[in-house]
DNA sequence: CGGAAAAACTTTAAGCTTGAAGTTTTTTTC
DNA sequence: GAAAAAAACTTCAAGCTTAAAGTTTTTCCG
């Protein structure tokens, strides 16, 4: 858009008050780390999608949605599902509709607020999810098999800090 | 990992010929690690997609495709792009078509084998990619800002081993 | 009270993605 | 030297995803 202002006014910002914008915008190490992270995730996710499809004729988004609902004994407001899954509300409309058709999920209008939809697992849905979740656990275990306990703990911690870094970068500007 | 309850309930199943089903079906730690990995990736990727869209009206798949082509001075066979990007060939057809229309990519039939398509960045494409890639680097640097050098190196190594584990699980059963 | 704003969705258009089926060209095999 | 098999795509249908716009309901506030 307006790329002109950044260049023009940059010189002025370079005096004391603002931190220098790293002359060599290297970031090479971070990019490589980012790509490796992406590769790990993509490899594992693709395989999990494939097995879910092959073994249960099911999709990962549906599985993820049911996973959210499993923890909520009395169902969950759609907006809350949206927030937890980090997907748009518009996305969920069709997803929930499908699961309702399959008999795995129920959807009711809240009596307190008629704008609100409450979704919950049916008994059948809960049973189906349990079966799939058990296999899912085995798959992840298999994919991570060669990782030592030490690496596991170490990744858990370091990824926690990475998550913090990303989150702080996202909330920072505002 | 000592889930003795599981061991007990499983005992009756353990007639001689059935092989023990790995560990007790716990995998809790692996699942949590997997979910954390997924969260990190999703958070960063969503933000990168958003900025690419906002600042350049461009998509991540197109960016990724151009990133592959940038390293190939003389273009690349479509099948090779497919393998490197880990996406289906059918996916690339439309993607390449778009970039050709934009003037960022050229596509030619190989003279040696008329089934083969060779794709390459145009000069304009190369310039456009450079601009976007620079910003992309800054974004990743920003998102990973709070990560220490030590964590960076540590993640790089441990994720390398994770990648190996996943790869070996994929190629194992054949 | 009553209009404006906000909230919680739903709908829609555009784009990515895949697996499966189809096409064209090359290689293998007998 | 054909027929068969393989390779390298392209096409297609189905599904996920989002941003933006639209609908209904509730809340705010003057």
TrEMBL record, chains A, B:
GO molecular function terms attached to this record: DNA binding
Domain HTH marR-type as annotated: residue spans: 30-164
PROSITE patterns given in the database record: HTH_MARR_2 (PS50995)
Keywords: DNA-binding
Pfam families membership: MarR_2
Stored InterPro entries: HTH_MarR-typ (IPR000835), MarR/SlyA-like (IPR039422), WH-like_DNA-bd_sf (IPR036388), WH_DNA-bd_sf (IPR036390)
Xref: PANTHER family: MARR-FAMILY TRANSCRIPTIONAL REGULATOR (PTHR33164:SF57), TRANSCRIPTIONAL REGULATOR, MARR FAMILY (PTHR33164)
Protein name: DNA-binding MarR family transcriptional regulator
Species of the source: Aquamicrobium ahrensii
